[in-house]
Design goal:
The complex is a heterodimer of chains A (about 130) and B (about 350). By secondary structure, chain A is of the alpha/beta class. Helix content of chain A is about 15%, strand content about 30%. Chain A has a four-stranded mixed β-sheet, covered by helices on one side. Chain B contains twelve helices and eight strands. In chain B, helix 3 runs antiparallel to helix 4 and helix 5 (about 165-190) packs antiparallel against helix 9 (about 250-275). Classes of the chains: A alpha/beta (about 130), B alpha+beta (about 350). The interface of A and B includes residues 6, 45 and 106 of A.
């Protein structure tokens, strides 16, 4: 079985735009951006692909610091950046299309960084 | 004097198979901008990964989508298998490939039926779904489930397909191919279909690449990305070429899916001919620790599963990047400047699976 190579590079938030620009110049396409919640921190992974070789840049943030948008280089990044904002409350500066928290319209307002499970939490009023 | 109005389109609309919402900014009859929003069927499936042991989450991963469920389960398993130190046996890889391609057949036939329905071609819709039934019958016979198969597991597969059943499947493919040929003729040549789809919702090659289009949406614009070429499962042992069209319009996206029916039939024939004997699973030797990505080619395009483990039987995080989510920016581009009457056809042409996209 051919397995995807796991090329993950940890970078500082201030390095993000420069590294992404390097990928863009080399012709990489944006595969995805996603956020993962850790203990008090958030990992944001930016994955790019060229000739079926995937590379991932990882930024670790406290969730309060603004992250620069890469939508100026990859126009379609707005969908992931808005999603990241709506699901995890990550603030992204300079998005080309900013939904202001309205991409994912749900009855329970974002962010979902502290999920509650029906039947598994304390009962209301207790 | 032109008037600008905003028309809310969806999430419930007779022509939409799944609930996406679009605010269409119109200038008379023409769409100036389309602003999508999702959330109507958000279920928080990714978060459930921390509440279920990693072998059980296969069932939840499969339920991400009611159409390409098997490939979701398989891709999740591939991501976990990177972390648990197990070698999936060859026979299991071939079985995964066979079920993946039957899933693609069933998904494409479902979409072709819906597309015909959106164009008002009801008897073509019924022909597609009638043929889809024969594909679902095979999935039901070999896995026990028509849509949710539950046959993939971390380390291999749960069920084998006996030799005589494989032979019957191979014979059945001839009938499927013959009927698919008749349907393909209509989609590729019928004048009423051509007039509704040619030159509509055009996406250039550069736009498809830079906007991150995947699957038939990208291949219809000349971007030949097909993750099966990476050789996951048994694809590395089978020969095929991705179907690529260059017009980038709704008809090209339809043509890619029509032609992929025959690619899938051919891949299943090759897999049945080459499937080796042997075991169908390997036991994981440890709990998942670390993080891992896995990618596969769904009927709608590139699917990414990410998992993160901490050495226990509960994963810390799962992330599913579905092809529909990444095809939304290209959809926004396609809709700009189109006629209002063409919106349903253009939206359908990316084969939107909103249940997948919202997870």
């Amino acid at each position: 079985m051919t397995r995807d190579s796991q090329h993950i590079t940890l970078i500082e938030p201030m390095e993000l735009l420069g590294k992404v620009e390097e990928f863009r110049k080399q012709g990489y396409r944006l595969v995805q951006i996603h956020c993962t919640k850790g203990d008090g921190t958030y990992e944001i992974n930016y994955s790019f692909d060229l000739d079926y070789e995937m590379r991932t840049l990882r930024v670790v943030t406290d969730g309060k610091t603004e992250i620069p948008s890469i939508s100026g280089m990859y126009w379609g990044a707005f969908i992931y950046e808005n999603e990241m904002h709506d699901l995890f409350g990550i603030r992204v500066a300079g998005m080309n299309i900013d939904y202001g928290g309205n991409l994912i319209r749900t009855a329970r307002k974002f962010p979902f960084s502290q999920p509650a499970f029906r039947g598994e939490g304390p009962c209301p009023g207790e | 004097m032109p008037r600008r109005i905003v028309v809310p389109f969806g999430p419930q609309h007779p022509v939409l198979p799944e609930p996406i919402h679009l605010d269409l900014v119109l200038r008379d009859e023409y769409v100036e901008d389309a602003i999508p929003s999702i959330g109507y069927v958000h279920r928080g499936l990714e978060t459930l990964v921390s509440k279920r042991e990693y072998p059980e989450f296969v069932y939840i991963a499969e339920r991400t989508c009611g159409i390409c469920s098997f490939i979701h389960g398989m891709t999740y398993c591939m991501a976990v298998e990177n972390l648990v130190d197990c070698d999936v046996p060859e026979r299991a890889l071939f079985l995964r490939t066979i079920w993946s391609e039957y899933s693609r057949l069933h998904s494409h036939l479902l979409w072709l039926g819906l597309f015909a329905d959106a164009l008002g071609f009801e008897n073509l819709f019924m022909s597609c779904w009638k043929l889809r039934e024969s594909v679902l019958d095979v999935l039901e016979e070999t896995t026990g489930g028509r849509v949710i198969q539950g046959s993939c597991k971390v380390g291999g597969v749960r069920r084998d397909i006996p030799g005589e059943t494989l032979e019957r499947m191979r014979a059945g493919l001839d009938a499927i191919e013959r009927e698919a040929g008749e349907i393909a003729d209509v989609f590729l040549r019928d004048e009423s279909i051509l007039s509704r789809t040619r030159g509509v919702g055009t996406l250039s090659r550069d736009e498809a690449y830079t906007l991150g289009a995947v699957g038939p949406t990208a291949r219809a614009s000349g971007v030949g990305i097909d993750l099966r070429k990476t050789g996951y499962a048994a694809y590395g042992k089978l020969s095929f070429s991705p179907v690529v069209e260059t017009a980038g319009d709704c008809h090209a996206r339809c043509a890619v899916r029509v032609k992929e029916l025959f690619t899938s039939i051919d891949l299943i024939r090759q897999a049945i001919a080459k499937i080796p004997d042997g075991p169908i699973e390997d036991k994981p030797k440890k709990n998942p620790e670390g993080d891992s990505f896995a990618r596969a080619e769904q009927p709608r395009g590139e699917l990414v599963h990410y998992v993160k483990g901490n050495g226990t039987r509960h994963l810390v995080r799962s992330r599913i990047r579905t092809p529909t989510l990444t095809n939304i920016p290209p959809l926004v581009k396609m809709l700009r400047g189109c006629n209002l009457a063409d919106v349903p056809v253009i939206v359908l042409s990316i084969d939107p699976c909103i249940g997948c996209a919202e997870r």
